[in-house]
Write a structure and sequence with these properties.
Mean pLDDT: 81
Oligomer: single chain
Radius of gyration: 30 Å
Order of helices and strands: HHHHHHHH
Strand content: under 5%
Number of strands: 0
Number of helices: 8
Largest sheet: none
Structural class: mainly alpha
Shape: elongated
Distance between the termini: 42 Å
Low-confidence stretches: 180-186
Length: 202
């Protein structure tokens, strides 16, 4: 018995080896008209394998791209659309542009830094005030997630003032983030989650 693992690797395994054999057969047809009809029949069969896909221009484009890939871009037919080129198909993906620069406080993260920068550029008003309030709430949650001890609101407001270079100055008591008992409850629950996560499994 010959196993599939010993056979030629399929470029697109989702279509199966039977469809791949059809494509290989199409490459051997010398008559161009007959080869064209064969290719169109194969594409029709490929589309029927995924009935949920709509017959949109994008779906048709993908099917013809796939038959070109399965033929190693050697199928000489009149494609109804411009198919992907071999050079582009084998080209490595573009590198992901990672953000550069150190995060000032890792427990707050870059997201908080970006939100503070946006708030600093906004005009005074209800929208800016609401955003600042949401930022302080998020800062306290992040702080408690990384620290076992409780933190008072003043510490959050001081950090926010430092982050914004003094552009956002909240007086103590101006915004009430949470009750100290809520902080203790959050820390207890957070400690329980860490204990369960770090528990060894035998």
């Amino acid at each position: 018995m010959e196993y599939n693992t010993k056979k030629k690797q399929l470029p697109l395994p989702e279509y199966g080896r039977a469809v791949q054999k059809m494509v290989d057969h199409a490459l051997t047809i010398e008559d161009r008209t007959e080869r064209q009809q064969c290719a169109e029949t194969i594409v029709s069969i490929m589309g029927g394998m995924f009935p949920t896909a709509k017959e949109t221009p994008e779906a048709i484009q993908k099917l013809w791209d796939h038959i070109a890939i399965m033929s190693d871009f050697k199928l000489d037919v009149d494609f109804p659309c411009e198919v992907i080129q071999k050079e582009k198909f084998n080209a490595p993906p573009a590198p992901i542009p990672y953000l550069k620069g150190e995060v000032k406080n890792r427990h707050y993260g870059r997201f908080v830094e970006n939100m503070i920068a946006i708030a600093c550029e906004m005009e005074e008003g209800d929208e800016r005030s609401k955003l600042i309030e949401l930022i302080t709430v998020q800062m306290k949650k992040d702080y408690l997630a990384w620290n076992k001890d409780t933190v008072d609101d003043k510490r959050i407001f001081d950090d926010l003032r430092e982050y914004s270079n003094g552009k956002i100055d909240i007086a103590e008591g101006e915004i009430r983030l949470s009750h100290p008992q809520q902080n203790a409850s959050y820390n207890r629950n957070n400690a329980k989650r860490k204990k369960v996560f770090n528990k060894k499994k035998y």
